C-alpha cells in the first residue's frame, strides 16, 4: 500500500461528450405545417380525419364541462384549445401501442376508441378507472402529476425485452415536468433506449403557476438534451404538425432509436378545472389572443383553401359531434348501479389477508343494513 502523499494522479484523457448534442437540440421555433409549404404535402385523408376528430373533441369538452355544472361529474379538467395534441397523440399510435394519459387527457383516450362514458367514470367518482386498460391499450388516467411517465417507460422497456413491437406514448403537462417522476422517467428511458415518446402539452400554466416560474430552460424540449434523447418543439395547435412529429417519434422508437421528448406549445382556454378561477392569474386579452390561434380554425382554413372541405362535410362533422354529445348526456344522466364490494376487486390480482378481512367486514355491514 502506498504511503500518504505518494499518489500522483496522471492527467485525465481528453474529454469527449458521450453523445453529440447537436442532433438532439429542438427547433429554434415551434415546428408548423399549416400555413406553410409543408401543408401541400400533408395527406388529405389524414387532415380530414384530424378535422373531424377536432370538431368532435371540442363538443365532447363542452358537454363534459356542462355535466360538471349539472352535478354529474365531480370534476372535469377541460382540454379545450388543446384538442390538436389530444387527437394527434391518439392517431399517431398503432393499435398494439399503449397510451399513458394524464387526468386532462380523456379526449385522447376517446379519440383512441374508448367509450366516452367510461373515460369519464373516474371523474364522476364511481370507479377506480372505469375501463379495462388492457382491452384498449390505454393506461388509467393519472391524477397524480407525472406518475404515469415511469409506468410508460417500464411497459415499453418490458415490451422490448420480450420482443414485442410496442411503443408507449406518455402525455404530461408543463407542470408535470417539475416533478421528480419526470426526471426519473426520462433518465431511465434514455439509458435503456426504451421505445417511449413523451408528449409535454405546454399550455402555459401549472394551475396558476406560469412556466417562467417553473423553469429557466430555453424550452421544455431542451431538457431532452440533458438526458441524451432528441427534443422536438412543435406548435401544439397545428394538428398536422403535432401528428407528423409524434408519428416520426413513434417510428423512431419502434425502430430501436430510443425515446423522444416532444414539447407542444398550446394553451388551456378554460380554467384548470371547474373548481379553478382562472381570472385570478390571467387576463382576457391573453385568452382571446390564443382563441385567434384555435386548432379547429387553423385546420378548417387549410382544408377550405385546398378545396377539401365543403359545407356538407363541415356540417357532417358537426352532426357527428352533436350525436356524441347527446349520447354522452343521456347516459351520464342515468344513475349508475354500483356495488360497494367492487372496492376490493381490482386492488391486487390475489387479495391480501387484510383485504379479505375488510371485504368480509363490509359484506357483513351491508347484509345487516339490508335486514334493517
From TrEMBL:
SUPFAM superfamilies referenced in this protein's UniProt entry, alphabetically: Thiamin diphosphate-binding fold (THDP-binding)
InterPro entries cross-referenced by the UniProt entry: Alpha-ketoacid_DH_E1_comp, DH_E1, PdhA/BkdA, THDP-binding
Alphabetized CDD domains for the sequence: TPP_E1_PDC_ADC_BCADC
Annotated stretches, region: Disordered: 1-23
Cofactor: thiamine diphosphate
Record key words, sorted: Oxidoreductase, Pyruvate, Thiamine pyrophosphate
Membrane-spanning segments: none
Domain Dehydrogenase E1 component: from-to ranges: 61-338
The organism's place on the tree of life at top rank: Bacteria
Coiled coil: none
ATP-binding listed as a keyword: no
NCBIfam families on file: PDH_E1_alph_x
Protein name as it appears in the record: Pyruvate dehydrogenase (Acetyl-transferring) E1 component subunit alpha
Natural source organism: Streptomyces cavernicola
Lineage: Bacteria, Bacillati, Actinomycetota, Actinomycetes, Kitasatosporales
Amino acid at each position: 500500500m502506498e504511503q500518504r502523499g505518494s499518489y500522483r494522479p496522471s492527467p485525465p484523457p481528453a474529454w469527449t461528450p458521450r453523445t453529440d448534442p447537436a442532433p438532439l437540440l429542438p427547433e429554434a421555433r415551434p415546428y408548423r405545417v399549416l400555413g406553410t409549404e409543408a401543408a401541400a404535402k400533408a395527406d388529405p385523408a389524414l387532415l380530414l380525419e384530424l378535422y373531424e376528430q377536432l370538431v368532435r373533441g371540442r363538443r365532447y369538452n363542452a358537454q363534459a364541462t356542462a355535466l360538471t355544472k349539472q352535478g354529474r361529474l365531480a370534476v372535469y379538467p377541460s382540454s379545450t384549445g388543446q384538442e390538436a395534441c389530444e387527437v394527434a397523440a391518439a392517431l399517431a399510435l398503432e393499435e398494439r401501442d399503449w397510451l399513458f394519459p394524464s387526468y386532462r387527457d380523456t379526449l385522447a383516450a376517446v379519440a383512441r376508441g374508448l367509450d366516452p362514458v367510461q373515460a369519464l367514470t373516474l371523474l364522476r367518482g364511481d370507479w377506480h378507472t372505469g375501463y379495462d386498460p388492457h382491452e384498449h391499450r390505454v393506461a388509467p388516467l393519472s391524477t397524480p402529476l407525472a406518475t404515469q411517465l415511469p409506468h410508460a417507460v417500464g411497459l415499453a422497456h418490458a415490451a422490448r425485452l420480450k420482443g414485442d413491437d410496442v411503443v408507449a406514448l406518455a402525455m404530461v403537462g408543463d407542470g408535470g415536468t417539475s416533478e421528480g417522476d419526470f426526471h426519473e422517467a426520462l433518465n431511465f428511458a434514455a439509458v435503456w433506449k426504451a421505445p417511449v415518446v413523451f408528449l409535454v402539452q405546454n399550455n402555459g400554466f401549472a394551475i396558476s403557476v406560469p412556466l417562467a416560474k417553473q423553469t429557466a430552460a430555453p424550452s421544455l424540449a431542451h431538457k431532452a438534451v440533458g438526458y441524451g434523447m432528441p427534443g422536438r418543439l412543435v406548435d401544439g395547435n397545428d394538428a398536422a404538425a403535432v401528428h407528423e412529429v409524434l408519428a416520426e417519434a413513434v417510428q423512431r422508437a419502434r425502430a430501436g432509436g430510443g425515446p423522444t421528448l416532444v414539447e407542444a406549445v398550446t394553451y388551456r382556454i378554460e380554467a384548470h378545472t371547474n373548481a379553478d378561477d382562472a381570472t385570478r392569474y390571467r387576463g382576457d386579452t391573453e385568452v382571446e389572443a390564443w382563441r385567434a390561434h384555435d386548432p379547429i380554425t387553423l385546420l378548417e382554413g387549410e382544408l377550405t383553401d385546398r378545396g377539401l372541405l365543403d359545407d356538407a362535410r363541415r356540417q357532417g362533422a358537426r352532426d357527428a359531434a352533436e350525436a356524441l354529445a347527446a349520447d354522452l348526456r343521456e347516459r351520464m344522466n342515468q344513475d349508475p348501479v354500483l356495488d360497494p364490494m367492487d372496492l376490493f376487486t381490482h386492488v391486487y390480482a390475489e387479495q391480501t389477508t387484510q383485504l379479505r378481512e375488510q371485504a368480509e367486514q363490509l359484506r357483513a355491514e351491508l347484509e345487516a343494513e339490508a335486514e334493517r
